[in-house]
Amino acid sequence: MKKILFVPICLFFMMSLNAQSISFLRDTTSLTQSVTAGSYISMQNRFTNAGVMDRWYKWKMVSLVSPIGWTFTVCDCNACAPEGVDTASFSVASGANCIFVYDMIHQGTPGTGIAEVKVTSLSDSTDTKTVYFVGTMFLNTSVYDQMNNVNAQIYPNPAQSTLYFNSEKIISNGLCTIIDMNGQTVYSKELKNTKEESIDISLLESGNYLLILRDEENKTMITKSVVKQ
User: Fold this and answer.
1) Which of 12, 128, 162, 176 lies at 20 to 30 Å from 224 by C-alpha?
2) Alpha-carbon distance 35 to 41, whole Å?
3) pLDDT in tens, 58-80
4) CA dist 23 to 73, 98, 162, 183, Å?
5) What number of CA atoms fall less than 13 Å from residue 46's CA on the CB side?
6) How far apart (Å, rounded) are the C-alpha atoms in residues 81 and 77?
């Protein structure tokens, strides 16, 4: 009987060791704010070692799309990497969690930056997770505060073919654009004297996108992460 039980117990133990351990609070972290030249926009995501063993991990920035002059820093569970370093290793105890931080720094250029960061367990190359950080910066606080008062809903999210936009205020002359995680514009539509619009995403490939709504002065009113199923 002991020999019969030995195999299932060993299999269970091996499965536990190889179980997926990487867990993030969210797949995409977005933040929009007004800042002064030389400052930064800081985005946080919670990382958890969901496995049964203490493990070492490696993060690597696999894609970065940002305006000219922007730089970045990453702080993992152990330390902050020097500015511009795009990979590092860190350790996390079993069941422990920490704040994974991505900072986008600019030198006076407003715009939107998108970073794609991949985290992989060093003991299991199949245990991997990709997260996105999307930061939008403004240089004029008064304009941003005014635009930030616009309350709008984008639904459903995720969506298969059509997104719907509903604003509490009439948009006299705006522009709705959707960009992919490579920073390419894949959809664009003018908004004139409207509070409601439908957005056709049926031709987009499945994945994560960023929807941006701008006013007539090209100031961003809304930034929203959306998912095409």
Assistant:
1) 128
2) 8
3) 999 999 988 888 999 999 999 99
4) 21, 11, 30, 25
5) 6
6) 11
Q: Between β-strands 207-214 and 162-180, what pairing exists: parallel, antiparallel or unpaired?
A: antiparallel
Both tokens of 150, joined, read 């616009």
- Residue 147 has a pLDDT of 41
Q: Residue count of the chain, please give it.
A: 229
Q: Closest by alpha carbon to 43, among 118, 135, 144, 136?
A: 135
Taken in order of first residue, the domains within the chain and their CATH numbers are 20-138 (2.60.40.10), 141-228 (2.60.40.1930)
> How confident is residue 213, by pLDDT bands cut at 50, 70 and 90?
confident
Q: Which residues contact 170 (CB under 8 A, 6 or more apart)?
A: 193, 194, 195
For the entire predicted model, the pTM comes to 0.59
